[in-house]
Amino acid sequence: MIAKPLNWPFPFVVVAGLLCFDLAHAQEASQPEAQPAAQADAANAPSTGGENDFGFDDSGKPIEISAENGIEWRKDEKIYIARGNALAVQGDSSVQGDTLTAYFGPDDKVTRWTAEGHVAVKTSTSTSYGDFADYDAKVRVLVLTGKNLKTVTDNETVTARDQLEYWRDKDVVVAKGNVVIVQKQTTVHADEAIGYFRREADGKKKMYQMDATGKVRIDKEKQTAFSDKLAYQPQTEIAILTGNVIIYDNGNRYEGGKAELDMKKDVSRILADGTKDGRVHTVIKPKEEETAPATEPVVTQ
Questions:
Q1: Beta carbons of 19 and 67 less than 8 angstroms apart
Q2: pLDDT given at position 292
Q3: CA-CA distance, 46 to 76, in Å (whole number)?
Q4: Residue 22 CB contacts under 8 Å (≥ 6 apart), including other chains
Q5: What is the value of pTM for the model shown?
Q6: How far apart are the first and last CA of the chain?
Q7: Is beta strand 186-199 parallel, antiparallel or unpaired with respect to 205-220?
Q8: FRET partner for 124 with CA separation of 20 to 30 A, picked from 10, 75, 95, 273?
Q9: 91 and 111 in contact (C-beta within 8 Å)?
Q10: 57, 91 Cβ separation under 8 angstroms
């Protein structure tokens, strides 16, 4: 059973199993005397036939929204609010939160939407989590903040302390504050990281370049590298480190201004670029000699 459809500014369906009452009944519960006006407002709500921008890739498809505690339409403020485990779905993408709020401009198109509380933003290639999400339709940028910020894809997991940003037109993801990126057997730490995505032949968007700055550290099996900056290409698994480079490998220490790590072939090159004395420094730990175990003296009778 589908609840009474409302004239929303995008193709819209309310799922009756989740939403126990429509907008008119929600207004009746909170403002009994305003029921006729609420029904009139819902009937006269603006409509633009699905041209609104919710930041999803499937922008031509209808958006289905459900909520456990009702949906409110504030006509004068041009605001829709869905409360209680609210969920907006469009194609393969969705936004979930305790509360979803959509803001509309004079042309009745979405200018901004927010999600608050237990936020999860899903696309065909990733799922991102946070406490608060804010999407600006004018610049098409989504910002997630809060505790336990995380983005998960098929190939990597990204966590951050301060915020995660998705610049839709540029296909760029920015992570800020104590960033940790885990991909296969490699873990990258940095103050800030930027991932660049593009659509591959299979139609999926994949990261082709990742830049990191500030207290960069790369951990891979027995190798740990430090630098000021990092440029990494996931397809080739080649990382370029610049600025105060230090590499620890099997107990050996290497210092220089620049390094190239081929993680696929397990080959590393360190260069003197930018060092004060124009030289590369290496400290090689001597191999410890194996000593034969002590044997007890033979006692004869």
A1: yes
A2: 54
A3: 11
A4: 3, 4, 6, 14, 71
A5: 0.75
A6: 99
A7: antiparallel
A8: 10
A9: no
A10: yes
Residues of the chain with CATH 2.60.450.10: 153-290
CA proximity to 186, closest of 89, 134, 74, 264: 264
- Cα three-residue angle 14-108-2, rounded to 5 degrees: 10
* Residue 42 phi, psi (nearest 5): -65, -40
Q: How far is CA 98 from CA 23, 145, 208, in A?
A: 18, 15, 34
User: How many degrees, rounded to 5, is the angle at CA 24 between CA 61 and CA 14?
Assistant: 25
CA dist., res. 179 & res. 159, Å (int) = 6
Q: d(Cα 133, Cα 120) in Å, to the nearest integer? A: 9
Q: Which residue has the tokens 């608050």?
A: 116
Please identify every stretch of the chain with a pLDDT value under 50, giving residue numbers as ranges. Answer: 1-52, 301
Cα–Cα distances in angstroms (integers) from residue 3 to residues 14, 25, 227, in the given order: 6, 11, 58
- Residue 291 confidence (pLDDT): 54
CB 195 within 8 A of CB 158: yes
How far from 208 is each of 166, 172, 189, 235, 237, CA to CA, in Å?
A: 16, 11, 18, 7, 10
Quick check: 126 and 147 in contact, CB under 8 A? no
Q: Exposed e or buried b for every residue in 249-264, given b needs 16+ CB within 10 A?
A: beeeebbbbbbebebe
Beta bridge partners, 218, equal 188, 225
Q: Which CATH number fits domain 153-290: 3.30.420.10, 3.50.50.60, 3.90.1150.10, 2.60.450.10?
A: 2.60.450.10
Q: Are 253 and 282 in contact (CB under 8 A)?
A: yes
pLDDT at 267: 87
The pLDDT score that the predictor gives to residue 12 is 32
120, containing H or E segment: strand 110-122
Burial of 27 (0-12, 13-18, 19+ CB in 10 A): buried
Q: How many CA atoms lie within 13 A of 160 on its CB side?
A: 26
